[in-house]
From TrEMBL:
One of its GO terms (molecular function) is peroxiredoxin activity. Pfam families: CMD (PF02627). It comes from the Archaea. Residues 23-106 form the Carboxymuconolactone decarboxylase-like domain. This is Carboxymuconolactone decarboxylase family protein. Residues 1-22 are annotated as: Disordered. It comes from Haloferax marinum. InterPro entries: AhpD-like, CMD-like.
Length: 109
């Protein structure tokens, strides 16, 4: 089963409510995520780090938390997850990178 199919009970309240109230939408959303994950040769850890980097770039605290949580569950070290935030300094700027680092550290400290 794909990394995108979640146990609805473990989701934050807003996506959980969406999944419960609109199961067809949730099913299509998870199918899209699965298709995207399977569309190329990138290994699992690298995919998680790319997704974390995209969440950092989008400045989405919830998505950063989600990808850090899932990365930890998948055995990615806290140091590696923190490094993703540090790598964002030259691209996103210091303040945005520090915000991202604080979101990573919410779950790694």
């Amino acid at each position: 089963m794909s990394e995108h199919v979640h146990d609805i009970e473990n989701l934050p309240s807003t996506p959980s409510d969406l999944a419960a109230n609109h199961p067809d939408v949730w099913e299509q959303y998870t199918a899209l995520g699965e298709a995207c994950a399977d569309a190329g040769p990138i290994d699992g850890e690298t995919k998680r780090l790319v997704k974390l980097a995209l969440a950092i770039g989008a400045q989405s605290e919830g998505a950063v938390h989600s990808h850090v949580r899932r990365g930890l569950d998948e055995g990615i070290s806290p140091e590696t997850l923190r490094h993703a935030a540090i790598l964002s300094i030259p691209t996103l700027g210091f303040p945005k990178a520090m915000a991202a680092l604080s979101w990573v550290e919410d779950l790694t400290e």
